[in-house]
Each structure stands twice: as structure tokens, then as C-alpha cells.
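Example (one chain per record):
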Amino acid sequence: MLHPRLIRLRVINSGRRIIRANDFDKNEALWITVHGAVIIAPDLLATAGDVVCQLRAHPHDHSQIGLLPESLKRREWADLQLVVDGENYKKVSVRARCDLTRDPLIFTQELEKMNRVTQVSQVVALSTVVLLPVLGGLGAHFYPAGREYGLRHSLPGIALLVATYGMFLTFLAAAGVILFQGARNLSRRFRWKRYVR
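Predicted structure:
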């Protein structure tokens, strides 16, 4: 070897579903590519728990090595060591072509549930935005300036105040849910596109 290099890397399942060997098409795996070099000696150093993985040589490209896990749960990992040779070494990349439609995806189901919650929250928030001016108008009509005593001490006035405050709190809660679910949805979609391709 004229330009040897030792590379160690850890492959982690950072998604929310289990990656199984049958998720991959025939002759497919998690392909690790060493750009600008060829792989001389790949080795599987360690795995998390009872994880079982196989190393698979690429039939045509010696700069790639395949990692095929029998089952890789969330946050489980596999450590690899690669002895490579290449003067123009640049970087290491990982790609995978998985069949993600054979089993129901927990991630997809959670996204659908989150979307339904967001839609309900949007309807609630819109309703409160419409009703709050109505309640304010009723209060101004029946209890104009100088008659606040009736608003706070008569039964209809108290009911109107309770309804207004309750509607306002409902609006704040719905708006909070929309913001939270939107941020969570965006974060998970980003992770999904990043780690499962």
C-alpha cells in the first residue's frame, strides 16, 4: 500500500423504526463508500447488545463495503474499521436503498396523528378568533363604560366574563399546540429525510 489510511466509523440507527435485513432489496445493504480510495481490509469491531451484522463486498466497486444488519433497533449501532489505500482520499459517505413499505411505519403513523391534532387545533384557534370579538361586542353593548359593576356582579355579566376568559385561554392553548406540533413535525421530517433514504 502506497497511501494507507485507517478509518473507524459508527453506524447508528437514529430513526424511530427497526431496520431489518428484509427491508433491503436483493444484493442491497447500507453501502459505505470511501471516496478517493479503495478498501483493503474491512472489519466489524463491535455492535450494541445482540446486534448481528454482515459485511458484504461490492461486486464491482472496491471503494464500497456493505453493512447488512439482521435487526437494528433505535439507537443501536455497529462499529467498523476500514483499512484503505488511496492518494486522493476525500471523505466517507453512507447510502441505502430500503423497501420501507413492507411494514407499517411508526414514524408515518405518528406524523398522521400529529397532522390531525394540528388540524383540530387550527379549527379551535380560528373559532376562538371569531368568537372573541363577538363576546367583546356583547360585553360592550350590554355593559358599556361606567357600568362595569353589572358586568362583574350580575349573573349574565359573570357568565360573559367567564366565557370570554375561557375562550381566550382556549385560543392560547390551541395556538401553543399548533406551534409545538409544527416544530415537532418539521424536526421529524428533517430527521426522516436525513437518515432514511
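Caption: The radius of gyration is 29 Å.
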